[in-house]
Amino acid sequence: MNSGFFITIDGGDGAGKSHQAAKLRDSLEAEGYSVFLCRDPGTTRLGEAVREILLNREEIPIAPQSEMLLFMAARAEMISENILPALEEGKIVIADRFLLSTLVYQGIAGGLALEEIMRVGEVAVQGRFPDLTILLDISAEAARLRLARPLDRIEKKGLEFHKKVESGYREALRFLAAAGRGGTVMIDADGSPDEIAALIRREVKARLPVLKSESR
């Protein structure tokens, strides 16, 4: 049995996931926890190569099914190479995105069946789902205003697509809950970064009383 604790931070593009994941890591490490931070897709050599194809190689056509399978391949490598070993060492793992994103982006917004994605996902993650998912909830319009940088291939899909992503998170959460894969906290991401970070820390720390003495 894994002895660590697995947290994912998810939400639409511009919600502040990467920033909040790093702030949570820094906060927990300052309190003595051992933390491993990863990004999905990415982190491993395979994952970073797949990330480059998925987000930046716009000259390469990618069918919806291929897109989903590429995300899953990167995730499978990260689970095997990074996440499971870190959890077995008793670490807190924080992932910037995970399977929930694929259910939303490639499933609900992209048109693939959630049941099919979930079957592939079970294999990719070796049955190891997050202990806690933090969903940063923000409107697609507000999130896009925060993207003050060149947009990647998926971010360029337009406001209507990202509105489907926004509403799709709630549908995906209901799907996961029905499959017995709940454990999600939704946090309003309209506040300041420090306010959001404080809310995330409060939710995470409420679930770490047993792990605290083991990971110091």
Topology, element by element:
Layout: E1 5-11, H1 17-30, E2 35-39, H2 45-56, H3 64-88, E3 92-96, H4 99-108, H5 114-124, E4 132-137, H6 140-145, H7 159-178, E5 184-188, H8 193-205, H9 212-215
Parallel strand pairs: 1-3, 1-4, 2-3, 4-5
Describe the structure in your own words.
The chain contains nine helices and five strands. The chain is an alpha/beta fold. It has a single domain, classed as P-loop containing nucleotide triphosphate hydrolases (Rossmann fold), CATH 3.40.50. Strands 2-3-1-4-5 form a five-stranded parallel beta sheet, sandwiched between helices. Helix 3 runs parallel beside helix 5 (about 115-125) and helix 4 (about 100-110) runs antiparallel to helix 5 (about 115-125). The longest helix has 25 residues, at about 65-90. The two termini are about 20 Å apart. The model has no long low-confidence stretch (mean pLDDT about 90).
Q: CA-to-CA gap between the ends? A: 19 Å
Give the integer mean of the pLDDT values: 92
**What strand order characterises the main sheet?**
2-3-1-4-5
Specify Rg, calculated over alpha carbons. Answer: 16 Å
CATH topology: Rossmann fold
Count of helical regions: 9
> What percent strand?
5-15%
How many E-type strands? 5
